[in-house]
């Protein structure tokens, strides 16, 4: 995990160097304007908020209040900013751009639009689409720190079986070092699920946030009419800790009861600690375990059961 984190840190720092150089963010003034980067961000907030306070802007930009205070003082000295007492809170001052301040904000916005547009036009269309897609993904990931996006479950559609196979194979290879034997196993399980699917006995769910798949689970019939099997639960790292795994398992259990099954079983491995905790909390009981060598490792396979 430390090696992975070190690599992630290096990748993000590399992007940051490229990004700041590409957009000229290290220049003393941004986009040929009289403003530094931090001043430009404060000016943007002043132009897009209705009479904010200095504390509100400091919180939004995660900037030191003393730095905000110095910036606002410079704006006032240049006749870009004026203040008035908040009638609802006499100790607060509300910040208002003067007409000159609004002209400056609009001029800065135009210069930034022109500069970024010129940079994007240098890229071939395919690279530009990739860049915009990547920036959208990064923004969504950072926004998720503030508010976790809602998770919804849906049924299968074309492409899902291949996506589940690929994502599970890659995740377990990254996190546990499992080889392609696991990928082959998942592919066989899902091919059998498709070939023998019975809507009266089987079901499957894909968990999504926005348009991104973040997990899956399958309910599969067995040779015993009263027994079903829970298979291939997984949750993407970005969705862990959000209750996605619990939602998938509880949905699968509810459907098994609805279909009239008396018992639900599953097979897992002892190293999958997070999944085992979800099973235990849902009421599953460990009924058997056995060592085996699979996916390039010595493992302990476990069978769990839940009376419905």
Automatic annotation (TrEMBL):
<dbReference type="InterPro" id="IPR036390">
    <property type="entry name" value="WH_DNA-bd_sf"/>
</dbReference>
<dbReference type="Pfam" id="PF00583">
    <property type="entry name" value="Acetyltransf_1"/>
</dbReference>
<dbReference type="InterPro" id="IPR016181">
    <property type="entry name" value="Acyl_CoA_acyltransferase"/>
</dbReference>
<feature type="domain" description="N-acetyltransferase">
    <location>
        <begin position="151"/>
        <end position="308"/>
    </location>
</feature>
<dbReference type="InterPro" id="IPR036388">
    <property type="entry name" value="WH-like_DNA-bd_sf"/>
</dbReference>
<protein>
    <submittedName>
        <fullName>Helix-turn-helix domain-containing GNAT family N-acetyltransferase</fullName>
    </submittedName>
</protein>
<dbReference type="InterPro" id="IPR050769">
    <property type="entry name" value="NAT_camello-type"/>
</dbReference>
<keyword id="KW-0808">Transferase</keyword>
<dbReference type="InterPro" id="IPR000182">
    <property type="entry name" value="GNAT_dom"/>
</dbReference>
<dbReference type="InterPro" id="IPR000835">
    <property type="entry name" value="HTH_MarR-typ"/>
</dbReference>
<feature type="domain" description="HTH marR-type">
    <location>
        <begin position="1"/>
        <end position="140"/>
    </location>
</feature>
<dbReference type="Pfam" id="PF12802">
    <property type="entry name" value="MarR_2"/>
</dbReference>
